[in-house]
User: Fold this.
Amino acid sequence: MKKTTYSILFALLAFASACSDFTEIEPKGKNVLSRVEDLDMLLNYEYRQRGFAFRSVMLVANDILPYAENIPNLLSAKEKSLNGILATWDGTLDRAILTATDDAYSECYSINAKVANAVIAKVDAAAGDRYMADRLKAEAYVLRAYMHYIVVNLYAKAYDPETAADDPGVPYIKENDALEVPCTKSTVAEVYENILADLETALELNSLPDKPINTMRVGKAFAYAVKAKALMSMHKFPEALEAAEASLAINDFIYDQRQLTGGDFVRPRIDCQEDLFTTFYERPNLHAYTDEIMAQFEPGSISFNHFPKIDESGFPIGLIIYGVPGLTMWDNNEYYMTTGGLTTIDMYLTRAECLIRSNKGDDLQEAMNVINTIREKRIDPYTPLSAADPAQAFAYLKQLSRTENWFSYRNFVNLKRWNTEDAYKETLRKNLLGQEFELRPDSPLWIFPFPQNATNYNPNLTQNY
Assistant:
């Protein structure tokens, strides 16, 4: 049985402290998680504690520049900061010594300890409605699977069917793992096997709602979406297609941006029907976006053309803060993105990619129909695209995927996944103030280092790059 890290012990202690309001009204020594209603409240977790957790991931994917950092100073520094390494794609330097903590790593494992595993460990013995108990258990299993999906995609190699059984992965923390002994890493293959097993357990309970109370609670469409993404990473494309279609059968909503061109450019926080699960939500305003990601937006893109922008001609805030002229900086306090969640668009794109890969019958045309279904609500004026062959269809898919998944961790994961295949891998290139940089598919930057606050307590947590 795998053992947990000491850092998880600290997370549980923090959780106990956070629950002091409950302990004060219970008899001394009584377990506060003894009722189904208590566990339901535990799952009302707001995934916002570290909303900036994926900024480093977005840097590597070349979506953004380091937040509020002077780029000339970053480029001329004699000793590079961690942001300097990531922004210039310098894989020769040791990032681990510069990574004391990592918000994404800490938050994912904290959620597992404080929420998912706490519910799984206590729900069977908790007093209360059993159907509700099954729903909470199913939510927790999906949540645990998804947090590990994020972690393995950031801190280990992308799943390669030829090597996954031997590639070192990340710890898969379960509810019965002991707290006092450092954990060991599972292989990449083992992590994915556990992800699929947790999802299957959740779905077999047949208790997840089609429409959860809000997008920070797990529903059935999200469970199938996580399954689709995991199977896609494993190169099991027919199975991924089946899971994506199951998710879309429950929720196929696409937010129609055409309605935003004449008024306020708003995307609701938590209650956007396009979001299957909202985590680490953030507004994309006041960040500086790279020329390369902006070039991916099609002519007629409603996002690009209508999103309120800071007018540098009146007040050159981008030049003042970043030292770079002509930056694209968006300014809107009412447009919320789920930087760490999944959306219906992810499922449409998954379906399109699986259909392109099938290379049979009318699947190529159907894939283009899926791509155009998204584009129709994103482009004005809209003209449908057609593809003569799978290669051209895949090029359209990649471009659309980049612009639909900007300002999230998902671009990083997709690019990293495609880099496992000769047909789809690519070297990214960027220009910063006249200097050229490139990120090759085999760069160590595609694997993030475990932070020191984890490795210092766990000698088993060796780096994966």
Strands lie at 275-277, 281-282, 288-289, 328-329, 337-338, 342-343, 428-432, 435-439. The chain has two domains: 1-51+96-207+446-465, 233-409.
